[in-house]
């Protein structure tokens, strides 16, 4: 009863009773309508004890993100399945790196830049891509700070990239700012919701080398110098969720289960035999007296013979089998892999439960989801941002002279084929049928078409010169397609009356 109802009850109990009865009838009607809903997920009462909030993405994510990241790091450090899952996700999504082809006048400058793109001076640009992908999958997001260098630093294109974990972001920084903007979890927005700055710590807040810490106070960095890469799953979501967010507890439970099973098996294996005789006072383990406390300490080791009871018999230990261990573990691992966005086989390396068809079907679905992440997350949030920053610095350095924006061609890492022979035949048929181009198929395999064509031309000329035969004949020998030879033979096959079928058809 609220305050208003209590006031009515004090003044007129009869009216208060009528209000209470009317409210009870309304509640019953609402409950009945909900139970009759066309959606089972909306029902209440009975066995459906489901409490779920309808909050925004940031409201749900904000207080949980720091703990999710810490637990994700712990899993990757200590759980072999988690470590393999992250490696599999990054290896398939980025591999040896996305290749970027630019117009010929500027392409050599970009290739040279990839060698010194890392601000730490350890990786090339393709190694940075792999590091970014691993960080996004493990931590939920990754920060890349664009470092503009001075002319005296000696770089042809004065730009380097610093890859940082999202822990650098001061998530405690929030509130309103002047001009109608606000700060949420270390990200500053203007009045219309655009990101204008990031509040970053100068060093990692968990850095053990405290002498490196110049300050624990975050600094404002304009958003134009920060790439924030994460998978955006909900509108308005300001940060990313680690890939193990949905299966983290399940993975932890599996760890505890395997640990308990290991301890139980180890304890059973310690007792090789039980001697049942008249050796009263014997202990089950090896007994010793602690010199400090004066108390007896027993230990159990593998292969022990234990003396018990008061009879004359020897019985060898027979550890009980744990029924359903494999099925239980595989079920958990399937669910963990599904939550992480990978396949059971990729995460565990276990191929014993699949055949060729099922493996191919699962692999195709995994590749489709990986391509979604590549082209809808990685390229827009990192690749395109990096290219535009590089282009801007290259124009300042006088390496790009065309007034038109650079039109890039991104080439993702190639996929390894399940059945190479069948795949090659399928590719050949697509090209022959005009459904695809040779350049497109080469890019799909991770090759630069111009480089491939140039190498083929060099090979043809070298073989022609070494063999002393015309280059066109070498080309025919190298690229004599089995299918085209058969097709030509079929096309010119004579009909029953000895007349060429093609000629016969033309006459018709």
Summarize the structure.
By secondary structure, the protein is an alpha+beta fold. 47% of the residues lie in helices and 13% in strands.
Give structural notes.
With 508 residues, the protein is an alpha+beta fold. Among the domains are: 3-42; 62-243 and 361-411, no CATH class; 261-340, no CATH class. Helices cover 47% and strands 13% of the residues. The chain has 16 helices and 15 strands. The chain has a 5-stranded antiparallel sheet, with no helix packed on it. A 3-stranded antiparallel sheet has the order 3-2-9. A hairpin with a 5-residue loop joins strand 4 and strand 5. Helix 3 packs across helix 4 and helix 13 (449-467) crosses helix 14. The longest helix is centred in the C-terminal third of the chain and has 41 residues, at 356-396. The N and C termini lie far apart (94 Å).
Q: What attributes does this structure have?
A:
508 residues, alpha+beta, three-stranded antiparallel sheet, extended, disordered C terminus
List the helices and strands and how they pair.
Layout: H1 3-11, H2 13-35, H3 57-78, H4 80-93, E1 99-101, H5 107-113, H6 125-139, E2 141-148, E3 159-164, E4 175-176, E5 182-184, E6 187-189, E7 195-200, E8 219-222, E9 226-230, H7 248-270, E10 271-276, E11 286-289, E12 296-299, E13 304-308, E14 313-316, H8 325-340, H9 344-348, H10 356-396, E15 409-411, H11 420-432, H12 438-444, H13 449-467, H14 471-478, H15 482-491, H16 501-507
Parallel strand pairs: 10-13
Antiparallel strand pairs: 1-15, 2-3, 2-9, 4-5, 5-6, 6-7, 7-8, 10-14, 11-12
Helix pairs in contact: 1-2, 3-4, 4-6, 7-8, 13-14
């Amino acid at each position: 009863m609220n305050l208003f109802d209590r006031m009515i009850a004090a003044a007129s109990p009869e009216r208060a009773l009528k209000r209470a009865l009317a409210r009870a009838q309304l509640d019953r009607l609402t409950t009945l309508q909900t139970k009759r809903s066309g959606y089972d997920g909306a029902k209440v009462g009975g066995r459906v004890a489901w409490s779920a909030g309808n909050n925004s993405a940031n409201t749900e994510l904000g207080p949980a993100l720091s703990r999710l990241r810490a637990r994700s790091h712990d899993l990757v450090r200590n759980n072999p399945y988690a470590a393999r899952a992250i490696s599999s996700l990054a290896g398939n999504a980025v591999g040896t790196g996305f290749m970027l082809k630019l117009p010929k006048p500027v392409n050599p400058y970009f290739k040279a830049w990839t060698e010194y793109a890392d601000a730490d001076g350890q990786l090339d640009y393709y190694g940075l891509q792999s590091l970014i992908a691993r960080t996004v999958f493990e931590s939920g997001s990754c920060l890349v700070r664009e470092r503009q260098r001075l002319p005296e630093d000696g770089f042809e294109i004065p730009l380097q990239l610093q890859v940082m974990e999202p822990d650098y972001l001061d998530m405690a920084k929030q509130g309103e700012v002047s001009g109608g903007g606000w700060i949420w979890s270390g990200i500053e927005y203007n009045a219309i919701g655009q990101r204008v700055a990031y509040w970053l710590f100068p060093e990692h807040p968990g850095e053990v080398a405290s002498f490196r810490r110049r300050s624990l106070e975050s600094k404002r960095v304009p958003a134009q110098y920060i790439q924030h890469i994460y998978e955006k799953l909900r509108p308005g979501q300001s940060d990313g969720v680690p890939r193990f967010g949905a299966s983290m507890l399940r993975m932890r439970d599996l760890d505890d289960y395997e640990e308990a099973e290991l301890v139980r098996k180890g304890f059973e294996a310690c007792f090789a035999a039980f001697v049942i005789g008249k050796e009263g006072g014997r202990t089950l383990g090896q007994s010793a007296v602690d010199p400090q406390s004066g108390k007896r300490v027993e230990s159990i080791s593998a292969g022990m013979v234990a003396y018990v009871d008061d009879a004359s018999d020897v019985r060898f230990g027979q550890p009980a089998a744990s029924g359903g261990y494999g099925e239980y573990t595989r079920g958990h691992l399937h669910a963990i892999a599904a939550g992480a966005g990978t396949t059971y086989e990729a995460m565990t390396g276990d191929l014993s439960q699949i055949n060729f068809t099922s493996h191919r079907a699962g692999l195709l679905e995994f590749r489709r989801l990986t391509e979604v992440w590549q082209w809808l997350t990685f390229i827009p949030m990192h690749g395109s941002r990096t290219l535009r920053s590089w282009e801007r610095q290259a124009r300042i350095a006088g390496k790009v002279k065309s007034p038109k924006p650079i039109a890039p061609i991104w080439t993702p890492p190639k996929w390894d084929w399940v059945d190479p022979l069948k795949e090659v035949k399928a590719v050949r048929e697509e090209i022959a049928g005009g459904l695809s181009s040779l350049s497109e198929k080469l890019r799909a395999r991770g090759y630069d078409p111009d480089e491939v064509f140039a190498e083929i031309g060099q090979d043809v000329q070298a073989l022609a010169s070494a063999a002393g035969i015309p280059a066109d004949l070498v080309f025919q020998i190298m690229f004599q397609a089995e299918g085209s030879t058969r097709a030509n033979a079929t096309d010119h096959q004579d009909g029953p009356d000895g007349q060429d079928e093609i000629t016969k058809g033309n006459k018709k």
